[in-house]
TrEMBL record:
Domain of life, source organism: Eukaryota
Pfam families, per database record: DUF604
Protein known as: Uncharacterized protein LOC115727462
Gene3D superfamilies: 3.90.550.50
Gene: LOC115727462
Length: 502
C-alpha cells in the first residue's frame, strides 16, 4: 500500500486532483448551465402569460399593458397599366356649399357629362329632404367635419383642402388623377384629358397654373396652382398627401385659401408645380375678351370667376355666352380659342382668328408679336389697377381707325368626319364708329366671315406647340358682304411670318 493512499492528513471528501480548481473549462460549463436554466424559465413564463391572456377577459386586465402604437394606414393600390389616359381615369373634386350650389350648379351643368365624367361636389351640409337634386347633375357628397382644424381666415379652407384626401379614401377603381376645382369653375374635360395624358400618372405630379394678377401671386404664391382655375394631383402624390394632410393643415392655418394650404403640403412632399397655361383663374375685373381672343398656344382647360367679369359675348347672359362657346368646343375641342393670323397685302389687312370665339380685322398691317398680345380691357383682381399682370398686354388705341373690327362666332357645324365650318358675324357693339377713312369702310363692308378647318386631333398637343396658319380664300374677294378663310398647317418655308414678307 502506497504512502499516498494511507496518508491520514488527506481529507477523503476533497477531490484528489487539485488541478480541478484551476480548470478553465469549469466556469464556462457553469455559465452555460445557468443560461439554459434562464431560457427555460423565460419560455415557461411566456407560455403561462399567453395561456393567461387567452382565457382571461383582456378588456378588464390592465397590468403589463404596453402603450398602443398607431397602426399604419394600408396603402391603397394605385392604378396600373400603360394604356392612354381617358376621361374615366379622372376623378373631379368640386368644392361647394349648400348655400351657393343652387346658383353655381349652372356652371357645372355646362361641362359635366353624366355618362363619362366621374366625381362629386363636396358640400358643407346635407341638402334638406325636400331638396330635389337636378337629374344629370354632378353627384354630391358631404364633407367630414373639419372644425377641429385651426384657421385664421377662411373657415371653409380646411374642409375644401381635405377634398383631395376624402376623394382618395373613397378608393374608387382606376383613378389616375384627382382634379380639384370650385363650383363656379368651367372645365373643358376633353382638353383636360389631352393635357394629363402627356404625363406619367405613376409619378408624382402637381399640375395647374397661377393667377393672372401679380398682386395675387405675390400674396399667395407664384409657384402655387390656384384652385379656382383647377389643379390636378396624380394618384401617387395623393397617396402621400393622404398620410400627412391632416397634420399638415394646422401648420399652415395662417394661409388664406384651401389651395394655398394644399400647395404648402405638396411642397413638404417635395413636388413642384408643373404649369399648364390652359388653366385659367381669371383673376381680373372687367372684360375678359382680351385674354380669350389671344389665348396662349395651349389647349383651353378651365375658366373661373365668371360671375365677376363681363359676359364673354355681348348682349347675352354669362351662361348663354358660355353655351355659345361650348358648341364649337364640342365639335373641335383641341382647337377652341386657338389663334391663326392672315394677311392681305393688297388691301393691307391683318386678320386674327380665335377659333370658335372671335375674329379681328385690322385695316393695317400688324405684326404677329402685336396680334398675340392681349388687349387690356380689364383691371387687376384685388385693387382694380391697370397693372401688373403675369403676361404682356397692349392698350386699346384711342384712335378709332387703329382699332380692329370685331366678329363673334355665330354658327358651327361639322364638315364631314374630319372638318368644320364656322361663321362669324360683325359685332356692332365692338366695331369702331368714329373712323371715316375709306380703308376702314371697306372692312366694315364685311358682315360675315366663314372659316373652314380640319379638326385638330388631341395628338397635336404631343408635338412642339406651334400656332397654325390661315389663308384668305377667293383672292380676298368679298361676295355678298362675306369672305372666306381657311385654317391649315403651316407649310415649310412658305409661311408668311410678318406682314412685310413677300
Amino acid at each position: 500500500m502506497s504512502r499516498a493512499r494511507m496518508d491520514p492528513s488527506r481529507d477523503p471528501l476533497k477531490p484528489s486532483n487539485s488541478k480541478f480548481l484551476f480548470n478553465p473549462e469549469a466556469p464556462r460549463e457553469v455559465l452555460a448551465l445557468c443560461w439554459r436554466i434562464s431560457l427555460l424559465s423565460c419560455l415557461a413564463g411566456s407560455i403561462s402569460l399567453v395561456l393567461y391572456s387567452a382565457f382571461t377577459n383582456t378588456r378588464e386586465t390592465h397590468w403589463l399593458r404596453l402603450p398602443e402604437l398607431p397602426r399604419p394606414r394600408p396603402r391603397i393600390p394605385g392604378p396600373d397599366g400603360a394604356a392612354p389616359t381617358n376621361i374615366s381615369h379622372i376623378l373631379f373634386g368640386i368644392g361647394g356649399s349648400l348655400r351657393t350650389w343652387h346658383d353655381r350648379s349652372r356652371y357645372s351643368s355646362l361641362w359635366w357629362e353624366p355618362n363619362s365624367t366621374r366625381g362629386f361636389v363636396w358640400l358643407d351640409e346635407k341638402p334638406p329632404e325636400n331638396f330635389s337634386w337636378p337629374e344629370g347633375s354632378i353627384p354630391y357628397r358631404v364633407s367630414e367635419d373639419a372644425t377641429r382644424f385651426k384657421s385664421s381666415s377662411s373657415k371653409s379652407a380646411p374642409r375644401i383642402a381635405r377634398i383631395v384626401l376624402e376623394s382618395f379614401r373613397l378608393e374608387l377603381p382606376n383613378v389616375r388623377w384627382f382634379v380639384m376645382g370650385d363650383d363656379d369653375t368651367v372645365f373643358f374635360p376633353r382638353n383636360l384629358v389631352t393635357v394629363l395624358a402627356k404625363y406619367d400618372h405613376r409619378q408624382m405630379w402637381y399640375i395647374g397654373s397661377n393667377s393672372e394678377s401679380v398682386e395675387q401671386d405675390v400674396m399667395h404664391g407664384y409657384s402655387m396652382a390656384f384652385g379656382g382655375g383647377g389643379f390636378a394631383i396624380s394618384h401617387p402624390l395623393a397617396a402621400e398627401l393622404a398620410d400627412i394632410l391632416d397634420r399638415c393643415l394646422d401648420r399652415y392655418s395662417h394661409f388664406y385659401g384651401s389651395d394655398q394650404r394644399v400647395w404648402a403640403c405638396v411642397r413638404e412632399v417635395g413636388v413642384p408645380l408643373t404649369v399648364e397655361r390652359g388653366f385659367h383663374q381669371i383673376d381680373i375685373r372687367g372684360d375678359p375678351y382680351g385674354i380669350l381672343s389671344a389665348h396662349p398656344v395651349a389647349p383651353l382647360v378651365s375658366l373661373h370667376h365668371l360671375d365677376d367679369v363681363d359676359p364673354i359675348f355681348p348682349h347675352r347672359t354669362q351662361i348663354d355666352a358660355l353655351k355659345a362657346l361650348m358648341d364649337p368646343y364640342r365639335i373641335d375641342p383641341a382647337r377652341i380659342l386657338q389663334q391663326s393670323f392672315c394677311y392681305d397685302p393688297n388691301q393691307k389687312w391683318s386678320i386674327s382668328i380665335s377659333w370658335g370665339y372671335t375674329i379681328q380685322i385690322y385695316p393695317s398691317l400688324v405684326t404677329a408679336n402685336v396680334l398675340e398680345t392681349p388687349f387690356q380691357m380689364f383691371k387687376t383682381w384685388r385693387t382694380w389697377g391697370n397693372e401688373p399682370f403675369t403676361f404682356n398686354t397692349r392698350p386699346e388705341s384711342s384712335d378709332p381707325c387703329r382699332q380692329p373690327v370685331i366678329y363673334f362666332v355665330d354658327t358651327v357645324r361639322e364638315a364631314g368626319w374630319t372638318g368644320s365650318l364656322t361663321t362669324y358675324k360683325r359685332s356692332d357693339s365692338k366695331a369702331s364708329r368714329g373712323c371715316a377713312k375709306a380703308d376702314y369702310a371697306r372692312v366694315l363692308a364685311v358682315e360675315s366671315i366663314t372659316v373652314s378647318s380640319m379638326k385638330m386631333g388631341p395628338d397635336y398637343w404631343n408635338k412642339a406647340p406651334r400656332r397654325q396658319c390661315c389663308e384668305i380664300m377667293d383672292r380676298g374677294s368679298i361676295r355678298s358682304r362675306s369672305m372666306r378663310i381657311r385654317i391649315r398647317k403651316c407649310r415649310a418655308h412658305k409661311t408668311r411670318a410678318s406682314p412685310s414678307d413677300p
